[in-house]
Amino acid sequence: xxxxxxxxxxxxxxxxxxxxxxxxxxxxxxxxxxxxxxxxxxxxxxxxxxxxxxxxxxxxxxxxxxxxxxxxxxxxxxxxxxxxxxxxxxxxxxxxxxxxxxxxxxxxxxxxxxxxxxxxxxxxxxxxxxxxxxxxxxxxxxxxxxxxxxxxxxxxxxxxxxxxxxxxxxxxxxxxxxxxxxxxxxxxxxxxxxxxxxxxxxxxxxxxxxxxxxxxxxxxxxxxxxxxxxxxxxxxxxxxxxxxxxxxxxxxxxxxxxxxxxxxxxxxxxxxxxxxxxxxxxxxxxxxxxxxxxxxxxxxxxxxxxxxxxxxxxxxxxxxxxxxxxxxxxxxxxxxxxx
Length: 339
Prior knowledge:
This protein is an alpha+beta fold. It has 2 domains: 2-210, H-NOX domain (Alpha-Beta Complex); 233-338, Arc Repressor Mutant, subunit A, CATH 1.10.10.60. It has helices at 22-28, 33-40, 56-70, 75-83, 89-96, 101-115, 145-164, 180-190, 233-247, 252-259, 263-272, 277-294, 299-305, 311-322, 326-338, and strands at 13-15, 53-55, 120-127, 130-137, 172-175, 194-196, 200-205. Strand 5 (172-175), helix 8 and strand 6 (194-196) form a beta-alpha-beta unit. The longest helix has 20 residues, at 145-164.
């Protein structure tokens, strides 16, 4: 694991869509989504850009903070139950394309750390007639572990019910970290006992593993950018820089604080790979600027989105990075589209 290589750093990443429909749920319940994200020190726009990647520890803080905002100890379970596997993008689509429940669970176990969330492991073990499908966060976290367990249960049960039927219930669900308040409410939502154990697990008859779903096509995996591994420190830092640009706080202090390193240690990690923080920041800004300009974004709007005080400052920076002005870049894009 990366902890030994990057002591003190928290580099496990996850897709924003792993939080389920958090924006809709919080606002329908009368909570302040802005307050939740501000307390987590994470850009609010993440709630509306599900393919964005963020640190797993920040996802845990957001979901845990939303639970506190609404005074709902099992909000995480409601989020994943409402969102379901279909809300997990390419990962969910691939898992749901498997012909049998056993194949689907194997696909989820094999792909979760690269297709949805790093720092996470899922395993299936058989004990007599019972199957134990387990989930655990393998990276050190200090906030939100119990809420993250509840988040996992909703997705796991959605998959099981796709094959076993919508009214199916497990033999029992096992939790490592759920509080007593969470256990009481969650049992009603799960329609089964929630007991304490070493691993967060859903326990069900092993015979269900052979259950099939009708009218399934060939399993496919849509092309999406994979989640960076915890050991890829440069890729992880780049993803956090991308969030910092989104927040308008693209400084080395903001990035290092989120990862759990000092600014000097972060720069040392980058230098070991022949990279400087400024070059990472410039790469992110260039990619974001080119993407937004190619989409037809107004130069002034793109400038403000990327944290520039005015369009002129942004235009100078863009020309320095690309050799052309933002407007010329847009004209080039239009001429290419017309061919």
